[in-house]
Amino acid sequence: QVRLVESGGGLVQAGGSLRLSCAASGIIFSINEMGWYRQAPGKKRELVAGITSDGSTNYADSVKARFTISRDNAKNTLYLQMNSLKSEDTAVYYCNSYRRGIEYWGKGTLVTVSS
């Protein structure tokens, strides 16, 4: 059974930082592409950052230079370091895994940034 479990969300003031984690099980984590998505109220889910199996990364323009995605294959864990948070970063953040057309989602963790 595949499980992606996000943690680390919460309430933070604008300008603050949070680190999200996603613990994966049931997949061969090291060979999966992984990503963080977010969905704000009334908006579509959007890609925040992605990381390939070989460590290449990509970011949404809105988070470049503020967020950093990383992975620890030994711990089967994906991370998202979020700095200089803004109110518009408020959303539910989801972990995603993808390989050969098969993807899985976590249930999400809520990040609320107060201005």
Structure description:
The radius of gyration is 13 Å and the shape is globular. By secondary structure, the chain is an all-beta fold. Strands 2, 4, 5, 6, 9, 10 and 11 form a seven-stranded mixed beta sheet that branches. A four-stranded antiparallel beta sheet has the order 1-3-8-7, with no helix packed on it. It contains no helices and eleven strands. It is 0% helix and 56% strand.
Low-confidence stretches: none
Strand content: over 45%
Helix content: under 10%
**Count of helix runs:** 0
Rg (C-alpha, Å): 13 Å
Secondary-structure map:
Layout: E1 3-7, E2 10-13, E3 18-25, E4 33-39, E5 46-51, E6 57-59, E7 67-72, E8 77-82, E9 91-99, E10 102-105, E11 109-114
Parallel strand pairs: 2-11
Antiparallel strand pairs: 1-3, 3-8, 4-5, 4-9, 5-6, 7-8, 9-10, 9-11
List the keywords.
four-stranded antiparallel beta sheet, single chain, 11 strands, mainly beta, 115 residues, seven-stranded mixed beta sheet, 0% helix
Summarize the structure.
With about 120 residues, the protein is mostly beta strands. About 0% of the residues lie in helices and about 55% in strands. Strands 2, 4, 5, 6, 9, 10 and 11 form a 7-stranded mixed β-sheet that branches. The protein has a 4-stranded antiparallel β-sheet with strand order 1-3-8-7, with no helix packed on it.
